Amino acid sequence: MRKHIALLGLVLASIFTFMFIFSKSNNGKLIKVEVIPSDRKIVMVYEDDESIKIFKRAIISAKKEPGKFNYQSLYYKVVLYYPNKTEELYLCINWNINRLNFQYEKDKENIYVISENNSKELEELIFNVRER
User: What is the distance between the alpha carbons of residues 125 and 132, in angstroms, rounded to a whole number?
Assistant: First the structure.
């Protein structure tokens, strides 16, 4: 029983540490997201709390994997705005697993795979705006 509690404490501490590092390194608050499809010259801007939560949840929970980004298919340039900096990433659908993945502009050696649930939420948010 003590081993389970200690293990749970260790897992929770790791999660808290990751969240703390993420929020500190990005000055704590994501304030705006711009999404620009590679095939169009439109810019979708998200500043409402619910949309920001969806983007943040998808990015934080994504699993890092070695790999290259597929720039041959439709992709989206995503600009994340924080109080004192911006960060760019590229987002696309990985058709092999039917999930979204992304790659940070500064990290060309890894992709980040977004969970199925978070992929669905993000797709709904982006595609609903594109259809209007």
Answer: 12
Residue 105 lies in a domain: yes
Q: Identify whether 16 is part of a domain.
A: no
Dihedral of the CA atoms 64, 65, 70, 73 (nearest 10)?
Answer: -60
pTM, full prediction: 0.70
38-69 pLDDT, tens digit per residue, is: 877 788 999 999 999 999 999 999 999 998 87
Structure tokens at 44: 């979708």
CA-based nearest residue to 36, from 84, 80, 68, 70? 80
- Counting the structural domains of the chain, the total is 1
Residue 111 sits in a domain whose CATH number is 2.60.40.4400
